[in-house]
Amino acid sequence: MSFRLKVMLAFTFTVATSVWLVAWLVSESLSRTFADRDQRRTTVLVQMFRHEFERRGEELLQRVKAVAASQSVQTILAAQDQAPFVSEAEQLARDQRLDFLEILSKDGAIISSAEWPARFGYKEEWLTERNWGGLSPFLRLEELPDGQALGLYALKTVQNDSNFLSIIGGFRLDEQFLKAIAVPDGMQVTLDKKNLVRGSIVTEMPLKGGDDKTLATVLIGQSSKELADLQDFIRRTAWIVGGAGVLLGGLLSLWASERVTRPVERLAATVRRVAAGEWDARAAVRSRDEIGQLAADFNAMTEQLVDQKRRMLQSERVAAWREIARRLAHELKNPLFPLQITIENLRRVRETKPSEFEEVFEESTKALLVELGQLKTIVNQFSDFAKMPAPRFEECDINQVVREATRLFEAHTIKLDLTLADNLPPVLADPEQIGRALRNLILNAMDAMPSGGTITIRTSAASAQRVAIEVIDTGQGLTHEEIERLFTPYYTTKHHGTGLGLAIVQSVVSDHKGTVSAESEPGKGTTFRLELNRYEQTSAG
Length: 541
Fold this sequence. Notes:
The protein is of the alpha+beta class and about 550 residues long. The protein is about 50% helix and about 20% strand. The chain is built from 13 helices and 15 strands.
């Protein structure tokens, strides 16, 4: 992920998160505020209902007292036969605007009933179960022809020397009764859940009778529409502002990339150029801030690196030529000493024993030719290493290169085993140099097997981009320390040789931008592995 994209995402996330967090906090605060307000309104409404309940109870008591004090009730109380008064309760209920009214005898039998006249003579068992005298208004369920009805009742007794009557009057407690309560906007009071607006928040207030049993429940509903609408508005606003924040974050990121990331990208591109070998690349200093100072410091550092590299290359060249001169002097000294001894011996024999000169001359010249051949080999190896030409790349079949390189060794006593993979992709290489590297590896393997053995040469597809060549011998192998120094120039594990063979191999493979490695264990032989790039990849580059 690029730095520019990270800046854009950081700005966008910060702005959008801040907006949505504020929206959530406001929404939660509103929810708590509305909940507190609704709780207060519910409390006030409950108090209003109780106040109305008490007011209607006082009103009911006054009306029931008025009925008890009426001339009709006094007449019923004085009469010996109460049957003719079966319809008196209806008229009295109309006069006092009562929904329920019953006049009962001392034993609880109904003398007259306004709500159900046909119940004349029935006894109200509940009236005789306890002493109801002196009680405040109470709730009870009344049996009616069409079912039950909840009512608020008051009881008054009247008596004389010989008789006793109970007057029970009441108001119907229904939806009409609840409408008399002044309800704030957005609230409802009902006895039936079906009347509540969907989505309302409901508070229940139980209504209990004289025996402390719940007879009905008043439902106080508060509409949540206002809160829901406000929350929807906040959410819509948050999405709009959040979207604007995302856009603002994008614009800010573009500005930041122009002011911050673009100079950093230019500096990074310059760093990559320097890392790729363009030592003359310099970063443009376009500001005096930290980025500009960083670019100036980078340029100064690059100048120092170039100067250090120049000095280091000069030192390395001097050291390399000194080492070459030292090695060359060392390698030439060994064959020159026998040459000198042989010539001196010839001169002495010619002067002291002329008759034996021809015989000594023949043997001495043979020795001279051997040493001169050794000198030629040494000079050629140093020459090859010092004058490695640049590779001349062409598309080539690596299996064919292996066959050409091993043809010179077919008559040798050491067995060559070629295991060449079919359908290998071509490589872009200099077949002559790769062949020389392979011959050096084969000669190195032969030197590792003075008593004979097998050299296996194997080709394979190392990966989708590379082809591999392995040269495997069955010699004595090498130690870990020897493997570490194996490709170092002038290092050798043999009693003879210059130590340049494997260094030449590494130089050739390096010029082809490939790799060479060695694996070995003492007593288990050695494996050299070359990996070269496929033709398509190299040519495309």
